[in-house]
Write a structure and sequence with these properties.
The complex is a heterodimer. Chain A has helices spanning 3-10, 18-21, 23-41, 49-77, 94-117, 125-143, 148-166, 173-204, 212-220, 229-249, 257-264, 267-298, 303-328, 334-360, 367-409, 420-423, 425-439, 445-461, 466-494, 511-528, 531-544; strands spanning 83-85, 90-92. Chain A has one domain (21-544). In chain A, helix 18 (445-461) packs antiparallel against helix 19 (466-494). Chain A is mainly alpha-helical. Chain B starts with a helix and ends with a helix. Chain B is 73% helix and 0% strand. By secondary structure, chain B is mainly alpha-helical. Chain B has helices at residues 3-24, 34-56, 71-93, 97-117, 121-146, 153-156, 161-185, 201-212, 223-234, 236-257, 262-267. The chains are: A mainly alpha, B mainly alpha.
């Protein structure tokens, strides 16, 4: 085969547009290369890694936003669900475009936070940003995955740089220990995930998510009850795959790394772990859910598989939330407390995904029923994406307050923080807003997000009553979480400062304070003005459900 | 050549070889003498020539090396075989573990060249990927991570050079004798009966698999070509993603490997 012929074959599926639709990732890769060259040639004297990374991310974000807008316009004129990229390994649709923008926006905020907080220092900056962008690249690929191999590679690519990021504060024992724990746990989880993927490939004969349906139909041959070995193997394989994704999501029982890694890593890295990897993993779960909906449309005999998966996820989500909230009670280290809080938040994300599974994979009796199901599934996806958006800002707010206080107090221990509100009232108020939003108090963004997720759970309960139970657990958990968030605020606002304490001064108009204010504003705004974002997410969610 | 004389030559070459290796192995002060290393190197060369003449004589009892056919094939064969042996010796005798790892990579590269000559292209590719790629890079990482301040004494020096050379010679001797007796006992020349074509590993595999495996593979297109097409047409995105993943991993490893303690003072809270 000649070269020309080979190149022709590359494009035989009519996806000449692949590289253009992959532009964000390509720009990030170019930025990675530029960072390496900068480090190699102009060590310490070049443009500066931070600026390079920021410019690269900003360009990618611009392209991503433009693509998202283009997708919206195209979608209104001709609703296409998805465009396969690169011989069907990746897929470009509303979810891909949205998660890209989400991750890139987060990365940009991360870069500005790190430039304000001074971690990493100038010498480490090229490595730090290279790893950060590499990790984001992995998550973007993961969110666009349409093939099990890419799902695995995306998880790996997101994980490998973050192992190093966690251990970035070298020489600190606790940091190295955290990195080691994180890595060993991650290696185990991805090994298990790979095993699940190999089972799936063996069972279905294809790794493509969109081709699962026909081959499953062939394998099942009409009998889809749980008694057949094939359905059992399918459930086992998907459960094993979930190990890898649940690890990125820090869902119970894969959450063990989370508190240690957060406490050991710098607050900036913990922030990246808490938001970006959860967003990527959630997007991957939504993708798997959508693929399963397609599968069941073609092979309806596998209905029980879907319900089992959905209910399993819901129960796991309830346990995750409860575990996270209960474990956060006795914590005195702010990062550790927030780590448990993110586990609880992951539970809520998982609840939304579980609702998608249960609604989308329920048996369809009539056309009216099918339409109702499609609406319900779309609402579940919308709820999860909305939750992700709010979660991004409220976690950014909480962690950037930790960063700001740490930079002056040199402590992340809660007792040391006593009385911070007296000298830095702005910071304390922003922290209070973020924590109340994390709890889910009205009128903040977190309230709307939780309401949407619990609403989907209520819908899902009509298909399987267990989901109603999960909804009640979710609602009760907001009360539990309020207690420990209030304890933090009580310490900051009402406890007298220790006698030898340095007083924290951080007006909101300066440096980190401005950043904290900047990310807290959306937390409030998203609670008051819901419709624009919700409308966008609704369009995206509707387009995903055929 | 009679079988017994083959054995004699084999044993002789092994003894010379072990002795040469013994002289070349790095030791405390003694190995500083250039003379003994030169003698050792010469002895190794002698042993290699002994082995070479043994097989080049075209005796029916020595089939482990094929010396048929055209000059180009023979030339490549001898070049690669020699390179492989020389690199192997340098691998065990060099003092710097990094050099050892690199020589090891060289051994594997020349071995995979030999596989290519025998038409076993998949084996060649797999050798490069698995060994030269993964194992050697891992070696280098380990060396980098474990010994940032240079190699420790126990890595640079041989503690029991004599025993090491003896054991090495013994192991190779057993392998060699097994090969010799096996090939002397069975006429694997049968494969050559198909014509002037050189028998290849692929031929043997094809005969062996014809009875057990359904022939899914397009015979006009080799295994490796099929693999390559799948990898670089359907899955080329994955290949690229793995490339970036490895890049990030290398940067991470370098970051961990370099020691910077002063960083801790600033962030020690």
């Amino acid at each position: 085969m000649g070269l020309v012929e080979a190149i022709g074959e590359l494009f035989r599926d009519g996806v000449q547009a692949s590289p253009a639709r992959f532009a964000c990732e390509l720009i990030l890769i170019a930025t990675l290369a530029a960072l390496l060259i900068d480090r190699l040639l102009f060590r310490g004297s070049g443009v500066g890694a931070r600026r390079l990374a920021a410019v690269g991310t900003a360009i990618a974000l611009g392209v991503g936003a433009w693509q998202l807008a283009g997708w919206l316009v195209d979608h209104e004129s001709s609703p296409t669900r998805s465009v396969p990229l690169f011989s069907g390994l990746l897929v470009f649709d509303g979810l891909t475009a949205f998660i890209r923008v989400y991750l890139l926006l987060f990365t940009l905020l991360m870069i500005s936070l790190t430039s304000l907080s001074g971690i990493p220092d100038r010498d480490d900056a090229p490595d730090f940003y290279l790893l950060l962008l590499g990790s984001m690249l992995g998550l973007m690929v993961l969110a666009a995955a349409n093939h099990w191999m890419i799902v695995f590679l995306g998880v790996e690519m997101a994980s490998v740089p973050s192992y190093v990021l966690v251990g970035f504060l070298k020489g600190r024992r606790i940091s190295s220990e955290a990195a080691l724990k994180y890595m060993v746990y991650g290696a185990g989880a991805s090994g298990v995930m790979l095993y699940g993927i190999s089972l799936l490939l063996g069972l279905l004969g294809t790794g493509s998510l969109s081709e699962m349906g026909p081959s499953l139909l062939g394998a099942l041959g009409g009998d889809g009850s749980l008694a057949t070995p094939i359905t059992r193997t399918l459930i086992l394989a998907l459960a094993l795959v979930f190990c890898g994704i649940g690890y990125k999501l820090s869902a119970v029982p894969f959450q063990f790394w989370c508190p240690d890694a957060f406490q050991g890593a710098s607050a900036e890295v913990a922030l990246a772990l808490s938001i970006a990897s959860k967003a990527g993993a959630t997007a991957a779960l939504i993708r798997i859910g959508l693929a399963m909906i397609d599968v069941l449309r073609i092979a309806p005999s596998a209905q029980e598989v879907g319900t089992t998966l959905g209910v399993g996820l819901a129960v796991l989500a309830a346990i995750t939330t409860t575990f996270g909230n209960l474990s956060a009670f006795p914590q005195t280290n702010m990062k550790r407390l927030l780590a448990y809080s993110t586990i609880a938040q992951a539970g809520y994300l998982l609840m939304g995904v579980a609702a998608l599974f249960v609604i989308g994979l329920a048996p369809t009796a009539s056309a009216a029923e099918a339409a109702r199901q499609a609406t319900g599934s779309a609402e579940a996806i919308e709820a999860v994406l909305f939750y992700l958006c709010v979660y991004c800002f409220m976690n950014l707010g909480a962690f950037s307050v930790v960063v700001a206080v740490r930079n002056q107090l040199f402590s992340e221990e809660l007792p040391q923080w006593a009385g911070v509100a007296r000298t830095a009232p702005g910071l304390a108020i922003c922290l209070a807003l973020c924590l109340f939003s994390l709890t889910g108090l009205p009128p903040l963004g977190g309230f709307v997000a939780k309401l949407k997720v619990l609403g989907s759970l209520y819908n899902a309960g009509q298909y399987h009553p267990v989901l109603w139970g999960v909804m009640v657990v979710g609602a009760l958990n907001t009360v539990i979480s309020l207690v420990y968030y209030l304890r933090v605020l009580q310490t900051i606002f009402f406890h007298p400062a220790p006698a030898d304490a340095v007083s924290v001064r951080q007006p909101l108009g300066l440096g980190l304070g401005r950043f904290v204010a900047l990310v807290t504003v959306p937390v409030v705004l998203l609670g008051l003005i819901v419709d624009p974002l919700a409308g966008l997410l609704h369009d995206i969610a509707r387009s995903l459900i055929r | 050549m009679e079988l017994s004389s083959v054995f004699v030559r084999a044993v002789a070459s092994l003894i010379w070889g072990s002795l040469g290796l013994y002289l070349m192995l790095p030791r405390g002060q003694a190995s500083g003498k250039l003379g003994s290393r030169i003698v050792g190197g010469l002895l190794l060369i002698v042993s290699m020539i002994l082995l070479a003449t043994m097989s080049a004589s075209g005796d029916a009892g020595v089939r482990f090396i094929y010396a048929y056919g055209d000059l180009g094939w023979n030339a490549s064969y001898w070049f690669l075989a020699g390179l492989s042996l020389v690199s192997a010796v340098l691998m065990v005798t060099s003092r710097n573990p990094v050099y050892s790892a690199l020589w090891f990579a060289m051994v594997l590269m020349s071995n995979s060249g030999l596989y290519l000559l025998m038409d076993a292209s998949f084996l060649a590719a797999a050798t490069v990927i698995v060994y030269a790629g993964a194992v050697v890079v891992t070696f280098l990482f380990v060396v980098m991570l474990a010994q940032p301040n240079g190699a420790a004494a126990y890595d640079r020096l041989t503690r029991e050079p004599f025993l090491a050379a003896c054991v090495g010679g013994l192991v190779i001797g057993v392998v060699l004798l097994t090969t010799l007796t096996f090939s002397a006992g069975t006429e694997i020349e049968a494969a050559a009966g198909t014509g002037s074509r050189r028998p290849s590993v692929a031929d043997v595999a094809r005969v062996a698999s014809a009875t057990t495996l359904p022939t899914k593979i397009d015979p006009a297109r080799g295994h490796v070509e099929g693999l390559g097409r799948s990898l670089f047409l359907e899955h080329y995105m994955s290949v690229e993603v793995v490339g970036v993943l490895l890049l990030a991993a290398v940067v991470g490893a370098l970051l961990i490997a370099t020691h910077r303690v002063e960083r801790t003072a600033k962030n020690a809270t």
